[in-house]
């Protein structure tokens, strides 16, 4: 005779009926991967800002203040540049914030025009959070950030004239603003500092009625980095390929298509996560290497000696978090030209008309020992 369930302490922690039913439902749909993959809306080119490489030329007689006129904002500029001389950290902060807003692994999105209005409103705060991390900034007293001991507010815009400011407070002197902008198509970003003046606020925008930065205010921005390189978003550069990949029936097919279609371009790990929509996206890359070998395609990773092979072949060398693919063919005896030694033979990039041959086996990646 079975013991009473209340006499068995382990029975009290058994799974409820609904949990068992959910598990059975998940097993029943395991053969329908399409049902588990998100299908994002297509990007809307009409909503994208015009591609730009840097801030616009001044349109008024206004100019940024000199160090004598406002030493505080020049001190802020120097503090940022001391921690990030070339702007690399700030660029990666903006890249991480945008990728976090897209949430590609769960949503399959890669473009700002795919975000809802509520999600778009959070891009600026995410950039603020990431800048605080990479620059190791303190919390402000009256604002979220403090730079060089000064409270600083932040404003973000994907357009070069779309920044908004808070309404002026009762303070005798306004706090400085960190002004940020980025463009996915050109892979550029700008970051500057502005202390709003009497003519800095224009008409109220649709953003909770906040006043938009006027042209005079824009011309008064002291740029810390203007037109610096933003880590690329390869899916934004190739939206047709991206849409085809994310609508594949499985993550593996999507990753295979990505490396098949974007040969010779650096593909970020975030792009792989977006099209795969799986936690184990790195495994999808490893399996893509095996499956694309029959098509003559290799996928080179960021660790020694594969970046050196990429350089020898004449394609971009992958860095941390990136990959590059290309179809290869063996070089004939006595053939001259750019090539690399792989798997005991010399190989070069394939061109249209070259026959398809099985790609060589790549050497195992490992950090170079010095």
Description:
- The protein has 370 residues and is α+β, with helices and mostly antiparallel strands.
- It is built from 14 helices and twelve strands.
- The protein starts with 16 loop residues before the first helix and ends in a 21-residue tail after the last strand.
Span of the ends, CA to CA: 70 Å
In one word, what is the shape?
Answer: elongated
Q: Give the integer mean of the pLDDT values.
A: 88
- Ranges where pLDDT stays below 50 over 5 or more residues in a row are 1-35
What Rg, in angstroms, do the CA atoms define?
26 Å
Quick recap:
With 370 residues, the protein is α+β, with helices and mostly antiparallel strands. The chain has helices at residues 17-28, 33-36, 71-83, 88-102, 104-107, 117-120, 123-135, 215-219, 234-237, 239-246, 251-261, 269-276, 281-292, 306-313, and strands spanning 145-147, 150-157, 177-183, 188-194, 201-204, 211-213, 222-229, 267-268, 297-300, 322-330, 340-342, 345-349.
Layout of helices and strands, plus pairs?
Layout: H1 17-28, H2 33-36, H3 71-83, H4 88-102, H5 104-107, H6 117-120, H7 123-135, E1 145-147, E2 150-157, E3 177-183, E4 188-194, E5 201-204, E6 211-213, H8 215-219, E7 222-229, H9 234-237, H10 239-246, H11 251-261, E8 267-268, H12 269-276, H13 281-292, E9 297-300, H14 306-313, E10 322-330, E11 340-342, E12 345-349
Parallel strand pairs: 2-3
Antiparallel strand pairs: 1-2, 3-4, 4-7, 5-6, 8-10, 9-10, 10-12, 11-12
Q: Main attributes?
A:
2 domains; five-stranded mixed beta sheet; five-stranded antiparallel beta sheet; 17% strand; alpha+beta; ECO RV Endonuclease, Chain A; 370 residues; disordered N terminus; 33% helix; Arc Repressor Mutant, subunit A
């Amino acid at each position: 005779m079975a013991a009473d369930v209340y006499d068995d302490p382990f029975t009290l922690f058994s799974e409820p009926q609904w949990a068992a039913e959910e598990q059975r439902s998940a097993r029943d749909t395991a053969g329908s991967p399409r049902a588990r993959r998100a299908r994002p809306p297509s990007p809307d080119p009409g909503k994208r800002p015009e591609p730009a490489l840097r801030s616009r030329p001044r349109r008024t007689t206004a100019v940024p203040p000199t160090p004598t006129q406002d030493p505080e904002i020049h001190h802020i500029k120097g503090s940022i540049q001391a921690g990030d001389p070339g702007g690399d950290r700030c660029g990666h902060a903006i890249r991480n914030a945008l990728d976090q807003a897209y949430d590609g692994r769960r949503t399959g999105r890669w473009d700002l025009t795919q975000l809802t209005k509520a999600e778009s409103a959070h891009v600026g705060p995410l950039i603020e959070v990431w800048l605080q991390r990479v620059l190791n900034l303190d919390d402000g007293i009256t604002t979220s950030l403090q730079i060089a001991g000064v409270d600083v507010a932040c404003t973000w815009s994907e357009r070069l004239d779309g920044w908004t400011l808070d309404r002026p407070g009762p303070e005798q002197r306004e706090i400085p603003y960190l002004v940020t902008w980025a463009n996915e198509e050109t892979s550029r970003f700008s970051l500057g500092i502005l202390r709003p003046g009497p003519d800095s606020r224009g008409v109220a925008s649709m953003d909770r009625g906040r006043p938009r930065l006027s042209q005079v205010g824009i011309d008064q921005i002291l740029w810390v980095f203007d037109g610096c390189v933003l880590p690329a978003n390869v899916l934004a550069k190739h939206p047709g390929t991206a849409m085809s990949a994310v609508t594949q029936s499985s993550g593996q097919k999507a990753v295979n298509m990505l490396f098949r279609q974007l040969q010779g371009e650096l593909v970020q790990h975030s792009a792989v996560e977006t099209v795969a929509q799986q936690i184990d996206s790195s495994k999808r890359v490893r399996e893509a290497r095996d499956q694309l070998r029959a098509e003559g395609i290799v996928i080179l990773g960021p660790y020694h000696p594969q970046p050196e092979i990429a350089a020898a072949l004449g394609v971009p060398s992958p860095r941390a978090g990136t990959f590059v693919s290309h179809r290869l063919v063996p070089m004939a005896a006595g053939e001259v030209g750019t090539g690399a030694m792989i798997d005991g033979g010399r190989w070069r990039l394939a061109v249209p008309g070259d026959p398809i041959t099985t790609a060589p086996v790549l050497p195992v990646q490992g950090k170079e020992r010095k």
